[in-house]
Each structure stands twice: as C-alpha cells, then as structure tokens.
What does this fold into?
Amino acid sequence: GGGVGRGGRWGYGVGMGVGGGGCRREGWEWGGARIEALAANDVRFSQNTVSYNKVDRRSGKRYTYDDLVQSMKTDGWKGDPVDVVKMPDGAYTSMDNTRISAARDAGIDVQANVRGFNDPLPADMIATRRFGDAKTWGEALTGRISNQKPPSFGNANPNGSPTPPKVTGKP
It folds into this structure.
C-alpha cells in the first residue's frame, strides 16, 4: 500500500519506525541524488505555512494533514523521498514542508533526496519553469524562502526556518 500522501515506487517502511534520535543512517545513491534518512528535527522549512486539506497528486484522493501524521505514526515513511538542499551553512532545508512537519509530529525520520546547493535542477523543472528562473536547487530553495508572505519570514530565515510551518485551513 502507498499509505496517505505520495505513494508508489519507493515502498519505504523498513527501518523507518519511530526513533533516530538525531543520528544519521547510511544513505545510498539513486537517480543522481543521495538518499538519506534524516531526523525530521534536523531539517529546516522553506515555507511558513502548509495546508491542512491535501490532495494526493497521483491518485486525486483527498486527505488531511492529520491523516498524514496518523499514517506516518502507523506505517512510517511511505512514498517518494523529499527533496532537501544542503545549504551553505551545512544544514538541511526542505522543498517539501508538509511531509517534514508531519514526520516531526509523528516522531519518525525523513527519507530525503539530498541535493547540493549548486546542483543543477533537472532539465524538465528548468524547461517548465517550476521554480521560475532557478537553475540550481539552491536558487530554487532561496527563491521559495524569499517569496513567502510576509517578507519578514525570508529576511529572518534566509537558509530556512527551524520552526514548523503553521497548518492553515484546519476546521
């Protein structure tokens, strides 16, 4: 099963239970990125809000932030790894804020595609301008941070925020 959220080709779950305690596990290479298990509390956020109501991009199924947290508590990490950028200060900041926040709430580690700050974005992301004029993961991430409202978020957190984003739209 894919669990709630982005299920599919990865089938994680082995070794992804509660714990980690900030220690890093061995990673492996896949598709040009280094896949690593990171403690969720060691990954910063690039956005100051995430939506409570979600739609699975693959299946179209609706779910909530609380559903995602419960799925992670029950089944661990499911679905693709998140894209995380190693920033110039040596710390990690995520492009996928909802799943990092949910993993913190669930008490599990995160499966991450660790990207270098100067690593080029995939050609399809550049061609579709997914991150505007960005050509590297670092440009994409700093652009996301600087475009947050209010602007004080980016000014105070140029490399990302350790504070989880506010969950908006919760009834």
In short: Residues 65-75 form the longest helix (11 residues).
